[in-house]
Amino acid sequence: MTAPLTPPPPPHRQPPHDAWQVPPAGGVAYEQDGPGMKTEVREAAVITVAVALTGLLLGVLWWWLAPHVPLIADDSAVYLKDTEGEQAIGVDGTFTLLALAFGAVSALVVFLVRRRGGVPLVVALAVGGFLGSLIAWRIGVWLGPTQNVVAHAKAVGKGVTFSAPLKLGAKGALLAWTVAALVVHLGLTALFGPRDPDPYQSPYTGGPSAPPAA
After folding, report:
1. CA angle (32 as vertex; 189, 50 as ends), nearest 5
2. Which residues pair with 70 in a beta bridge?
3. Residue 149 near residue 78, CB atoms below 8 Å
4. Among 58, 139, 143, 202, which is disulfide-ready with 63 (CB 3.0 to 4.6 Å)?
5. Cβ atoms of 91 and 167 closer than 8 Å
6. At residue 116, does pLDDT exceed 60?
7. Among 134, 131, 60, which residue's Cα sits nearest to residue 94?
8. What pairs with residue 80 in β-bridges?
9. Average pLDDT for the chain
């Protein structure tokens, strides 16, 4: 009488590849952090130029919205018609408020286009904002009344009120765009930017795992 034949063992099969598969040696695998430095520098150059060119719009708005400083002339000199007026302060204030708004909007647009951030992008916002302010300043002065006050006074005649040249007295306003852009972009990145993965995150439980033994 012979023993019953035992069935051969089932062939060894590889476990299916799913979310519970053991991660490769060395811990959790990470993706490349960012598009690369060369790509970031190219993007930063484009952002710098684009932000700076929007200074043209800021210059036009400043010239259009800034209050006029009234002057009047007699036979010997040119005077402020309203010596206690605050039009000159309003000119600087208008430029500052517009620059702050442009800085906030440019930071928001850049963040929506590229959320990851990076040093080149932050530098592009800062440099582009400052160049945009310089362009806006010069465009506003160019669009405004002539800088030759004496010739302007002679052209309008004695005792006739005319507008003073558009002038930015507070040169610190040229930094308003840069400061607003950096602050807003930093805040948006801190609140809504991508987070770096936790190196001690367990791939199975979702909680922190113990650091490897020495």
Report:
1. 50
2. 163
3. yes
4. 143
5. yes
6. yes
7. 60
8. 71
9. 80
Q: How many residues does the chain have?
A: 214
Paired with 73 in beta bridges are 78
Higher pLDDT, 9 or 100: 100
For 124, the 3-state DSSP assignment is helix
- Per-residue pLDDT tens digits for 162-207: 888 999 999 999 999 999 999 999 999 888 877 666 555 555 555 5
More confidently predicted of 5 and 142: 142
Check: CB of residue 92 under 8 Å from CB of residue 173. yes
Q: Are 70 and 87 in contact (CB under 8 A)?
A: yes
CB atoms within 10 A of CB 182: 17
List the strands of the sheet with 78-80, edge to edge: 78-80, 70-73, 162-163
- pTM equals 0.73
Q: What residue has token string 């928001």? A: 108
Query: What is Dmax (Cα atoms) for the chain?
Result: 141
Q: What is the 3-state secondary structure (H, E, C) of 130-156?
A: HHHHHHHHHHHHHHCCCCCHHHHHHHH
Q: Which of 54, 205, 18 is nearest to 128 (CA)?
A: 54
3-state DSSP assignment of residue 123? helix
Taking the C-alpha atoms of residue 58 and residue 132, their distance in angstroms, rounded to an integer, is 8
